[in-house]
C-alpha cells in the first residue's frame, strides 16, 4: 500500500447493485419422509449481484472482490443459526416449516476500510396474494398446492462514499454487469425458473430503474407544487392578518 492508497477520494461515490431474498420450493412427500416430516419447504436465501446470470435470479457477477463475508442469522430453531459464508455463492439452503426474519450482515474486504452493514429479509415460503382457502378472500380454494417456486427478492445498491484509493482501484477493475433494458426470457428448465404456470423468475431491469426514477421525479414535482400552494396561502393569510390588525388599530 502506498501513502496515496490510504487517502479517501473526496467527492466521489461508487455504487454496486445487489439483490437479496429467497426462493422456496414445496417438498414432495418423498422428500419430507427423508428430510424431516415436519418440514414443508426447501429454501435458499442469498445475496447476489443484481444482473442475472443465464436462468438465474441475479448472480451474473462474483461479488467477492468487495465482500469478505455474508452472515445469515437464521431463526433459533435452526442448529448454529449464525451461518458465515466466506466465499460465493453467498447463500444458505435449508429446509423448514415456517417463515421468519433473516438477519443479513455483509462484511467488506479489509482494504475497503468500510464498516459491516446489516439488514433483514423476511423469508417467504407461501404464495403471494390472499390465501386460496381463506373464506374472507372470496376466492375458490386452489385445486392443488402450487409446484412453482416462490420468489421474494429486493433490489438495492451498496454505496461507497469517498472510498480509499486502493479500494476504488479494486472497484474500478470490476464494473458491474449492466442490467438489461427490459426483462429477457430466461428460458425454461432451470431450477430457479421451473414455473408451471408460464410465468418466469423475476429479473431486475433498467426499465424498472427508470420507472422508479420517474416515480421519484413525479413525487418531487408534487412536493414543489404543494409547497408553492401553501406558501401562497400563507402570504394571503399574513396579508389578511395585517388588514385585520390595521382595522382593529383604526377602530381604537
Ligand atoms: C413461526 N415465528 O412461528 C415463526 C418461526 C421458525 C421456522 C418459524 C426450523 C425447522 C426445525 C423452522 O422451520 N423454523 O428446526 O426443524 O412461523
UniProtKB/TrEMBL annotation:
Region Disordered, annotated ranges: 174-214
GO CC term (a single one): cytoplasm
Keywords in alphabetical order: Activator, Chromatin regulator, Coiled coil, Cytoplasm, DNA damage, DNA repair, Nucleus, Transcription, Transcription regulation
GO biological-process terms attached to the record: chromatin organization; DNA repair; regulation of DNA-templated transcription
Main location per the UniProt record: nucleus
Source organism, top-level taxon: Eukaryota
Location in or out of the cell: Nucleus; Cytoplasm
Function of the molecule: Component of the SWR1 complex which mediates the ATP-dependent exchange of histone H2A for an H2A variant leading to transcriptional regulation of selected genes by chromatin remodeling. Component of the NuA4 histone acetyltransferase complex which is involved in transcriptional activation of selected genes principally by acetylation of nucleosomal histones H4 and H2A. The NuA4 complex is also involved in DNA repair. Yaf9 may also be required for viability in conditions in which the structural integrity of the spindle is compromised.
Subunit text: Component of the SWR1 chromatin-remodeling complex and of the NuA4 histone acetyltransferase complex.
Listed name of the protein: Protein AF-9 homolog
Gene that encodes the chain: YAF9
Amino acid at each position: 500500500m502506498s501513502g496515496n492508497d490510504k487517502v479517501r477520494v473526496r467527492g466521489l461515490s461508487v455504487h454496486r447493485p445487489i439483490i437479496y431474498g429467497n426462493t422456496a420450493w414445496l417438498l414432495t412427500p418423498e422428500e419430507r419422509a427423508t428430510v424431516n416430516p415436519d418440514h414443508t419447504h426447501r429454501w435458499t436465501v442469498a445475496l447476489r449481484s443484481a444482473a442475472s446470470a443465464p436462468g438465474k435470479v441475479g448472480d451474473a457477477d462474483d461479488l467477492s472482490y468487495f465482500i469478505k463475508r455474508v452472515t445469515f442469522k437464521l431463526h433459533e430453531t435452526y442448529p448454529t443459526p449464525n451461518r458465515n459464508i466466506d466465499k460465493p455463492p453467498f447463500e444458505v439452503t435449508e429446509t423448514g416449516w415456517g417463515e421468519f426474519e433473516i438477519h443479513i450482515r455483509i462484511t467488506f474486504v479489509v482494504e475497503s476500510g468500510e464498516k459491516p452493514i446489516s439488514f433483514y429479509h423476511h423469508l417467504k415460503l407461501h404464495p403471494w396474494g390472499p390465501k386460496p382457502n381463506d373464506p374472507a378472500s372470496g376466492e375458490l380454494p386452489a385445486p392443488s398446492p402450487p409446484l412453482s417456486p416462490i420468489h421474494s427478492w429486493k433490489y438495492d445498491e451498496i454505496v461507497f462514499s469517498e472510498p480509499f484509493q486502493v479500494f476504488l482501484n479494486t472497484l474500478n477493475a470490476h464494473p458491474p454487469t449492466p442490467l438489461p433494458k427490459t426483462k429477457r426470457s430466461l428460458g425454461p428448465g432451470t431450477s430457479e425458473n421451473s414455473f408451471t404456470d408460464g410465468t418466469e423468475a423475476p429479473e431486475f431491469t433498467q426499465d424498472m430503474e427508470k420507472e422508479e426514477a420517474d416515480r421519484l421525479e413525479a413525487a418531487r414535482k408534487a412536493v414543489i407544487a404543494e409547497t408553492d400552494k401553501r406558501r401562497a396561502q400563507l402570504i394571503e393569510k399574513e396579508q389578511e392578518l395585517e388588514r385585520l390588525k390595521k382595522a382593529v388599530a383604526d377602530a381604537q
